[in-house]
Amino acid sequence: MAFKKVSVVGLGYIGLPTAAVIASRGIEVIGIDVSQKAVETINQGKVHIVEPDLDMVVQAAVTMGKLRASMTPEPADAFMIAVPTPFKEGHQPDLSYIEAAAKAIAPVLEKGNLVILESTSPVGATEKLAAWLQEQRPDLHFPGASTAEPNMYVAHCPERVLPGRVLEELVSNDRIIGGMTNKCCEKATELYKTFVRGECISTNARTAEMAKLTENSFRDVNIAFANELSIICDKLKINVWELIALANRHPRVNILSPGPGVGGHCIAVDPWFIVDSAPQEARIIRTAREINDHKPEYVIDKVKAAADQFKRPVVACLGLAFKADIDDLRESPALDITCELAKANIGQILAVEPNIHELPAKLQGQGVELVNLQQALEIANVLVVLVDHKPFKVLHSSDINTKVVVDTRGIFSR
Ligand code: SAJ
């Protein structure tokens, strides 16, 4: 089957680049989103998120007439669901966006369609998706959800792209194709082969779900190790950056970097899905989450101690995004730390974030001022490096030698 028309449901950080890349291969793509603003922006050939080169690819696809966005689903050969999967109270996965997407596309599904879940999901979510679709469309036969021979195809193909390198990784990364049946794997592989240069590796849906959660938990555990080391090193008066550089000279040691905590919508969230599925067994995974979640509190205490040295503390928080050189503030420890410092009334709080142009809602009404780096350097007596954005990494010691610096990213120690 050749895919003539593909529908991408959810036009966020994953869905929009995926839609644009598929469209750039000459396939007609219709993107579905619940946000009217996002739909209008995309239809003008513009983007509502910051990701290198995405604006160019979207503009080209829209101009060529291969990509358009809508709030209303319509028939297509394949549907790719890329909606958020946050967690609820008590770190339980919230599948309501997937359920809503299933209900939205169900009326337009036709026999032989392929439905792919790309959203990072707890084990069993793809089976649930098939069941929700079956409930809505008793006239069709979904794998695992109907006793009749399936005439629909369902697979979980988790996205694995790194924010900041999405367009490159979308094409070059290997893809895990978790089909509900072998036929589902074949169909999904056929679709991914239209734009993926990496290998497409088939497995079942449950293993694919767990593989994605495992990748992000592996990273979380390793960052927790680095964060724990940084706290131990403070206590023992050792420079953790020098220590890690030395230890990493060993051929089988590769320690990651400590930071102000772990942010983003993936690594700070996904390990909880494993903990929720196996609470007794997932001990290291849970502890890593707790260590990383505790790090912002530790940084706040350090900044308070630094501010205490001044009669009129002016604290400049360098960076609000969850990591370097992006504008994404989701689950950002830098944003949380800045917000808590403002609430703690320790002095004047300045925020420097070169990738955004207005103060985030969370900081509004807290007395925080968004300034540029130069202004911050002129008036702050405490500098808190929260994100290693490029403009911060080129600072010289002469820029900072009159200030007390809390450097959570080690930009002055490398
Ligand atoms: N961080 C550290 N120290 C490090 C590395 C990262 O503190 O040494 C922090 C970052 O500052 C950030 C957080 O961890 O706050 C996460 O950043 P990241 O660059 O490790 O990962 P994400 O969340 O941008 O993207 C991850 C990627 N997963 C893996 O590398 C295993 C990406 O491939 C996934 O597609 C993405 O999650 C996702 O969508 O799940």
Automatic annotation (TrEMBL):
Residue ranges annotated for the UDP-glucose/GDP-mannose dehydrogenase C-terminal domain, each copy included: 316-414
Keywords: NAD, Oxidoreductase
InterPro entries registered for this protein in UniProt: 6-PGluconate_DH-like_C_sf, NAD(P)-bd_dom_sf, UDP-Glc/GDP-Man, UDP-Glc/GDP-Man_DH_C, UDP-Glc/GDP-Man_DH_C_sf, UDP-Glc/GDP-Man_DH_dimer, UDP-Glc/GDP-Man_DH_N, UDP_ManNAc/GlcNAc_DH
Coiled-coil ranges per UniProt: none
Residue stretches spanning the membrane: none
Signal peptide positions on this chain: none
Family: Belongs to the UDP-glucose/GDP-mannose dehydrogenase family.
Protein name as catalogued: UDP-N-acetyl-D-mannosamine dehydrogenase VpsB
Organism: Bowmanella denitrificans
